[in-house]
Amino acid sequence: MQNLPIFELKNVSHRFEKIQSLTDINLKIKAGEQVALVGSSGAGKSTLLSLLNGTIIPSQGEVWILGRNFRTLRPKLRRQIQQQIGTIYQQFNLVDNLRVIHNINAGHLGRWSFFKAALSLIYPLEIQTATQALQQVGIPEKLFERTDHLSGGQQQRVAIARVLVQNPTAILADEPISSLDPQRSFEIIDLLHQLSQHNKKTLITSLHAIEFARSHYQRIIGLKSGKIFFDLPADTLTDSLIDKLYTDPI
Ligand SMILES: Nc1ncnc2c1ncn2[C@@H]1O[C@H](COP(=O)(O)OP(=O)(O)OP(=O)(O)O)[C@@H](O)[C@H]1O
């Protein structure tokens, strides 16, 4: 079990009606790995992340998550597996007019009953857990602030705190810094790196900023026109290969 990959894709292709977004992907990602996904717009990065968190099922091939062939699972087991995968998005996916604590507590939703979730909207529950998560992302004083009163960088920290409360095995981040300035971008990438290392969580991040992929990830996967163009340790990736990823036709 120890050596089983957290994620495995076997001959995976995906098609959105007329658009072939991924073609024949074979990939294994082990526990604790920090992987950056890079490639031009439309290369298939978000599609790949959506396959890894079970949001979409591939048109062809098999996606194995935590040792299970996801397609074959019953809905209840699918939800249990999905609870183990936390995802952070470019647009944060927070409810703007709620206080921060409610957005963080959304990380419990897969585990809480409907009643508990509804009650927590009136009397916030698990304040200590939420405070700890907010402390880990560096803004503990914002717990009762309205979410839309925070800056973009702070909102992304809240989204990360929500994932920490979910306590997943793996964290997926889909272009988490696209709407942030360079300094905030560095801070969020650095935070994700520190948290995944400290909490021993697998981290997979899609990124346009190649410099952060190189500085903060062990492994870099380049996608080009829906195919894996390279899959290399960060310290062996050359500038010329990066140029080819973005310029040459496949
Ligand atoms: N829901 C969808 N319906 C139809 N086509 C889609 C859908 N999602 C993605 N695609 C198409 O699949 C291809 C891959 O898209 P994807 O979003 O995975 O790329 P990406 O590498 O994440 O791009 P970006 O960096 O711009 O986010 C694109 O051609 C895109 O237009």
TrEMBL record:
Record field: transmembrane: none
ABC transporter domain location: 7-250
Keywords from the named record: ATP-binding, Cell membrane, Membrane, Nucleotide-binding, Phosphonate transport, Translocase, Transport
Gene3D superfamilies xrefs: P-loop containing nucleotide triphosphate hydrolases (3.40.50.300)
InterPro entries in the cross-refs: AAA+_ATPase, ABC_transporter-like_ATP-bd, ABC_transporter-like_CS, ABC_transpr_PhnC, MetN_ABC_transporter-like, P-loop_NTPase
One GO MF term attached to the UniProt entry: ATP binding
Record's GO cellular component terms: membrane
Pfam families xrefs: ABC_tran
UniProt protein name: ABC transporter family protein
Organism: Lyngbya aestuarii BL J
